Amino acid sequence: MKPTLKVYLCSPRGFCAGVVRAIDTVERALSLYGAPVYVRHEIVHNRYVVESLRAKGAIFVEELEEIPQTDAPVVFSAHGVPKAIPSEAERRNFFSLDATCPLVTKVHREAEIHFKRGREIILIGHAGHPEVVGTLGQLPAGAVSLIETVDDVASFVPKDETKLAYITQTTLSIDDTKEIVRALKERFPKVAGPHKEDICYATTNRQLAVKKVAHLVDAMVVVGSPNSSNSQRLREVAEREGCPRAVLVQRASELDWSMFEGITRLGITAGASAPEVIVEEIMGAFAEHYELSVETVTAAEETEFFPLPRPLRQVTAAE
Ligand code: SF4
């Protein structure tokens, strides 16, 4: 007889509205214009999603220079791009479709407004992440400085501390970011910030659900890719909230069963770019080893929906 395992399924988990929009953009472009559709960078950070779109005719590149002269659509990923990229696409007469999440675009607009008001901008985020590269690239070099930790706040030297503003990456840890913002405000009381957090609703809700579950379980499985910022944060949040073992996996085949020996309670969640079909695959794998009883733990209801990029919307409406 199989041992029993109580599974707590975090809700919300998996795809957010920005990811759905980005994937739909590529799929819609493929069905309207046919293959190939070029996509700059992984459309979202998930190998399964990327491979599925590749099988349908999407060609993924890291830079525009890898794309030959073409009439085929060129899609920019959900993470956003530096301003130089759409300019280069225009120069090369590409038919570009911008799948940047509207909540990332909102941060780009905030940066522009601060810049117009003569403020030096601090971006709280992770160096090298494509969203950070895109946000830094909205303004001339030197206009935005990246801060990753509370220690960075202490060593930051502003040009004029009365003219400072901060913005953040959308997929950070809520708790870490609070600490950094607190340190910033302590050191620079006049720093301007967003009216409401730049961390998006999806990141926030997925972390809140993990917090509700982490202390109830012996282990937590986070479905997501290692290069997915919000998935990595979910694993960290689980550990910090007292879950003894938290692991990030892309597929059931990556599960290390020795890690789950003797557990009786398991939490499962998925990053915003991870499809539900992989969560089902993981549940199926556990069901082979254990007798499961499943309970969903809900932290928030989500109803967000973002319409497709305008060129696709117009074609859709005309049909
Ligand atoms: Fe947009 Fe947030 Fe989803 Fe990123 S995680 S695509 S910012 S909704």
Write up this protein.
The chain is an alpha/beta fold. It has three domains: about 5-15 and about 200-300, Cobalt-precorrin-4 Transmethylase, domain 1 (3-Layer(aba) Sandwich); about 15-100, 3-Layer(aba) Sandwich (Rossmann fold); about 105-185, 4-hydroxy-3-methylbut-2-enyl diphosphate reductase, catalytic domain (Cobalt-precorrin-4 Transmethylase, domain 1, 3-Layer(aba) Sandwich), CATH 3.40.1010.20. The protein contains eleven helices and twelve strands. Strands 10-9-11-1-12 form a five-stranded parallel β-sheet, with helices on both faces. A four-stranded parallel β-sheet has the order 3-2-4-5, with helices on both faces. Helix 9 links the parallel strand 9 (about 220-225) and strand 10. About 45% of the residues are buried. Bound molecules: iron/sulfur cluster (SF4). Iron/sulfur cluster binds near residues 104, 170, 203, 230 and 272.
Structural descriptors:
319 residues, alpha/beta, Cobalt-precorrin-4 Transmethylase, domain 1, Rossmann fold, 3 domains, five-stranded parallel sheet, four-stranded parallel sheet, flat, binds iron/sulfur cluster
